[in-house]
């Protein structure tokens, strides 16, 4: 059986539907959305670079590459790629292990090559086997974490870096202890800026001004925050938001621009640690990107498909370029993707626009951006988090039953109290466990003859795996003496020998149980005992 056929078909559909006829056909929606994503992405890229122990510019390079390279090659219209918080501990430890950032960069290039190979091998099919409960739990978990992480920034406490999504922070504090400390050190100006931003985020879409679509709510919310703080600087300078509570973009002049970039030290390829690190980065970045792709498709109002193998190729190309230019590894990221959706983006032009703006910002108007309060950006992310963890999502999960709700809740709690990648891993384990239990409970042998018939007829499903053993054994052991039974396997395209062993045992004991049996469409050769085949 060709197990890749569904993925291939989905890839073809995604290629046909995933892109707009013209990149600029919806520019009135996409350019403003790109500005919003830029405003959200910039502090996140800088924060992740700081937390990773990498040069500040490396986060911006990764953000630009994620938008221009991955954004252009990806089949997704809305997903944003860039430096990912989930890779922060991997990068931090990796730099220490290999002896410096320049020696770390070859691992990023190798990770990209690995992703290109995974795309060529069509390994993206793995994304189709992640339970929906885990994907929805990931969205809700990221939403709750985003709210908990942005509340301190919203009240003017910026002790933790922007983009941190781990429960245990780099300082040793936790999300909850940081939240407690933040509410003991409230800065009134920051809190007012955040409240104004949240109010704008909810009011603006209902206002008459929203009809122009040129100024999405998040952009207006940030502008209001900047305007409020500038008014304070003029009228009440002692109360204005200053210093570390503002966006801190590195100023780069034309004279020292090239010196800001790091280049790979290829001598590091002689170290086995670099190759091991490349394997970890490639696999983790691929997993995070595929899961973000599936989650973004659920957020897309148009429900457009996106080819998973093409995404692996795009991410691989992005990491090769990022590594060569001195950037952090890139992956699909949900916070920026959900902000892109909320801002009303309709094509990948928004993703490309945000990257172009990030590049221009570094080269020119950093002084202007450095007047943006982090509390104003926090207001946008707070509303984004609320929408990701919307109450309707929880209600739907509850109505779908225990087998859906428990993996959903476990994923949410695991993300909130560990981090995104660990939370997804725990959620996957629980979700797969429920699938296995349901599989074991459901009958594999489906009875197709009416009760009381002379001949009891059963049919096997399309896939008969080792998980089918228990169900088949229960059905066959329940047959009464004197039964005439037919087992039809003509619909089955895959037989595991583990399951066939149960049929072999039944065939050997049926006559002693006075059961008249007939096997149809079941490979008789496979039912021959192994010792008999060895001596034939």
Blueprint (SSEs and pairs):
Layout: H1 5-17, H2 27-51, H3 56-73, E1 80-83, H4 88-98, H5 101-120, H6 132-154, H7 175-182, H8 188-203, H9 217-235, H10 272-299, H11 308-325, E2 330-333, H12 334-342, H13 349-363, H14 366-369, H15 374-388, H16 391-399, H17 402-417, H18 420-441, E3 446-447, E4 455-459, E5 463-464, H19 469-477, E6 484-488, E7 494-495, H20 497-509, E8 516-520, H21 530-534
Parallel strand pairs: 4-6, 5-7, 6-8
Antiparallel strand pairs: 1-2, 3-4
Helix pairs in contact: 2-3, 2-12, 2-13, 3-11, 3-13, 4-10, 5-10, 5-11, 6-7, 6-15, 6-17, 6-18, 8-9, 8-15, 9-15, 10-11, 10-12, 12-15, 16-17, 17-18, 19-20
Structure description:
This protein is mainly α and 536 residues long. It folds into two domains: 370 residues, no CATH class; 89 residues, STAS domain (Transcription Regulator spoIIAA). 59% of the residues lie in helices and 5% in strands. The chain contains 21 helices and eight strands. The strands form three sheets. A four-stranded mixed beta sheet has the order 3-4-6-8, with no helix packed on it. The protein has a two-stranded antiparallel sheet with strand order 1-2. A hairpin with a 7-residue loop joins β3 and β4. The longest helix has 28 residues. The protein is elongated, with a radius of gyration of 28 Å. The two termini are 29 Å apart.
User: What structural class is derived from the secondary structure elements?
Assistant: mainly alpha
Average per-residue pLDDT, rounded, comes to 87
Total beta-strand segments: 8
Question: Using only CA atoms, what is the Rg?
Answer: 28 Å
How many domain regions? Answer: 2
Widest β-sheet, arrangement of strands: 3-4-6-8
Q: How many helices in DSSP terms?
A: 21
> Shape from CA axes?
elongated
């Amino acid at each position: 059986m060709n197990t890749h056929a569904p993925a291939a078909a989905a890839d073809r559909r995604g290629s046909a539907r995933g892109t707009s006829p013209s990149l600029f056909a919806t520019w009135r929606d996409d350019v403003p959305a790109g500005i919003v994503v830029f405003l959200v992405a910039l502090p996140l890229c800088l924060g992740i670079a700081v937390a990773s122990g990498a040069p500040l510019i490396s986060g911006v390079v990764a953000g630009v590459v994620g938008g221009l390279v991955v954004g252009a090659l990806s089949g997704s219209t809305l997903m944003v790629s860039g430096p990912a918080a989930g890779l922060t501990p991997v990068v931090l430890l990796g730099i220490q292990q290999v002896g410096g950032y320049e020696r770390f960069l070859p691992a990023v290039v190798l990770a990209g090559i690995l992703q290109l190979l995974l795309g060529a091998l069509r390994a993206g099919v793995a994304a189709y086997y992640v339970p929906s409960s885990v994907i929805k739990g990931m969205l809700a978990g990221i939403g709750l974490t985003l709210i908990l992480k942005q509340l301190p920034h919203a009240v003017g406490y910026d002790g933790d870096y922007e983009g941190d999504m781990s429960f245990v922070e780099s300082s040793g504090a936790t999300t909850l202890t940081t939240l407690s400390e933040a509410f003991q050190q409230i800065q009134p100006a920051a809190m007012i800026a955040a409240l104004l931003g949240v109010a704008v985020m909810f009011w603006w879409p209902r206002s008459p001004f929203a009809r122009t679509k040129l100024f999405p709510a998040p952009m207006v919310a940030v502008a209001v925050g900047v305007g409020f703080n500038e008014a304070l600087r003029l009228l009440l300078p002692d109360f204005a938001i200053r210093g570390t509570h503002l966006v801190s973009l590195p100023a780069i002049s034309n004279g020292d621009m090239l010196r800001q970039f790091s280049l790979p030290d290829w001598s590091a390829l002689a170290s086995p640690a670099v190759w091991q690190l490349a394997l970890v980065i490639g696999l983790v970045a691929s997993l995070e990107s595929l899961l973000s792709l599936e989650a973004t498709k659920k957020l897309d109002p148009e429900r457009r498909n996106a080819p998973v193998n093409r995404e692996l190729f795009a991410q691989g190309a992005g990491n090769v370029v990022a590594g060569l230019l001195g950037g952090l590894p890139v992956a699909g990221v949900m916070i920026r993707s959900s902000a892109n959706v909320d801002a009303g983006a309709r094509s990948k032009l928004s993703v490309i626009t945000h990257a172009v703006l990030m590049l221009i910002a570094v080269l020119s108007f950093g002084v202007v951006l450095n007047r943006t309060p982090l509390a104003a950006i926090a207001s946008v992310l707070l509303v984004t988090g609320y929408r990701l963890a919307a109450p309707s999502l929880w209600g739907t999960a509850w109505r779908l039953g225990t087998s859906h709700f428990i993996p959903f809740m476990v994923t949410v709690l695991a993300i909130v109290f560990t981090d995104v990648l660990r939370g997804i891993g725990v959620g996957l384990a629980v979700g797969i466990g429920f699938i296995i239990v349901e599989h074991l409970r459901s009958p594999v042998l489906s009875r197709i003859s009416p009760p009381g018939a002379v001949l009891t007829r059963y049919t096997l499903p399309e896939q008969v795996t080792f998980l089918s053993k228990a169900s088949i054994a229960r059905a066959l052991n329940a047959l009464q003496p004197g039964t005439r039974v037919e087992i039809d396997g003509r619909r089955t395209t895959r037989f595991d020998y583990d399951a066939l062993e149960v049929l072999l045992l039944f065939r050997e004991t049926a006559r002693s149980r006075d059961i008249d049996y007939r096997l149809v469409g079941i490979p008789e050769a496979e039912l021959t005992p192994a010792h008999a085949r060895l001596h034939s």
